[in-house]
């Protein structure tokens, strides 16, 4: 996105990809810039806002100088991410001067206006109409019905060959370290037919990979009592298993993110073994010691989780398991941390991210006793990542010599950057092709032979 800021990857393992904007401007057309911070769920919100604005006749600017006003879609998950959002707002004010703030941090308008009183408007997460009203007031629309046509797939901020597909908002969990339910509310699932229709349009527009996201993908449809929607001459249930099956029939890669390990997750594994859904699960385990999990107000069944992982791998040997963890949670003892390291040794997860715990304004965990000193948190993070890196290196080394499909993300004069089925964009590793790549283009899915491996990435050659 040029000069516009984003939260650095060190703050958010599930960081949204960089914006990719390409919108030619006609003479006299009002233009809006967008800074999208935080996770892919926020990126989907940004896409929806820009799609509406594009339909109303606005052009989309990739830089501050070319924008009549700038929308900053903020992150409010961690205090450090909040600080980064305030920095991005400040940068937008300095570089442009006309700034509208939305997103998770917008749920605390006084926090924003206290730091930046010159912002033009502040709206909360997924308040699309209020954002549009603020834009209309700051930069009146000037539509041309003969020129301004809404693209069939809407405005996308990711490369054209993959797209995030948000299936619900909110979360019913009450984890003590998290304020997402306070900001985004309880679970609200989209109707199954609406999700599938959006996915179908994306695939028809050339999307080769659908990344399914929500705060709690496994719980999809619980709030709707798993109701039925009309679809393709029949009906489809608002349930993650049924939704995944139907998405898999559209012909694109389907990758599932933020899947809590409820018992019914095991019903997804046969779909992965059949090839309908990518053999990839992104599951936020957070910790392994039952006492820490209880203090987090999360299910404390790490041993049974190991049994589930073993069952998943037995049914689908190629499954890739990704997770995030928190070290240094209030009260975490050295023995509890060692339990986490031992659990990781046994679980042998393929992809792992890790946060050092930090207080978040409004989170109940702030009030817990025995907060861990910063130097201890750093030491535990270093030890955890050292073990995770060693596991990742061994897993990738075992792939050398295998032939596997990859999706091409980008091509330049030095080579092609690709991803295997085991790699989500921006948060996992890459596979690089540095010979015979000239005919490749983004979105191609090709077979490669893996020739080299590092701790996180692979190198290969076309078959």
From TrEMBL:
Keyword annotations from UniProtKB, A to Z: 4Fe-4S, Cytoplasm, Iron, Iron-sulfur, Metal-binding, Ribonucleoprotein, Ribosomal protein, S-adenosyl-L-methionine, Transferase
Entry's cofactor comment: Binds 2 [4Fe-4S] clusters. One cluster is coordinated with 3 cysteines and an exchangeable S-adenosyl-L-methionine.
GO biological process, one term: tRNA modification
Listed cofactors: [4Fe-4S] cluster
Localization in the cell: Cytoplasm
CC terms in the record's Gene Ontology section: cytosol; ribosome
Residues covered by the MTTase N-terminal domain: 30-140
Major localization class: cytoplasm
EC annotation from Swiss-Prot or TrEMBL: 2.8.4.4
Domain TRAM residues, every copy: 397-463
Gene3D superfamilies reported for this sequence: Methylthiotransferase, N-terminal domain, Nucleic acid-binding proteins, tm_1862 like domain
GO molecular function: 4 iron, 4 sulfur cluster binding; aspartic acid methylthiotransferase activity; metal ion binding; protein methylthiotransferase activity
Residues covered by the Radical SAM core domain: 157-394
Reactions catalysed, as given in the entry: L-aspartate(89)-[ribosomal protein uS12]-hydrogen + (sulfur carrier)-SH + AH2 + 2 S-adenosyl-L-methionine = 3-methylsulfanyl-L-aspartate(89)-[ribosomal protein uS12]-hydrogen + (sulfur carrier)-H + 5'-deoxyadenosine + L-methionine + A + S-adenosyl-L-homocysteine + 2 H(+)
List of residues binding [4Fe-4S] cluster 1: 39, 75, 104
NCBIfam families: 30S ribosomal protein S12 methylthiotransferase RimO, MiaB/RimO family radical SAM methylthiotransferase
Function, in words: Catalyzes the methylthiolation of an aspartic acid residue of ribosomal protein uS12.
Family to which this protein belongs: Belongs to the methylthiotransferase family. RimO subfamily.
Protein name (record): Ribosomal protein uS12 methylthiotransferase RimO
Organism encoding this protein: Cereibacter changlensis JA139
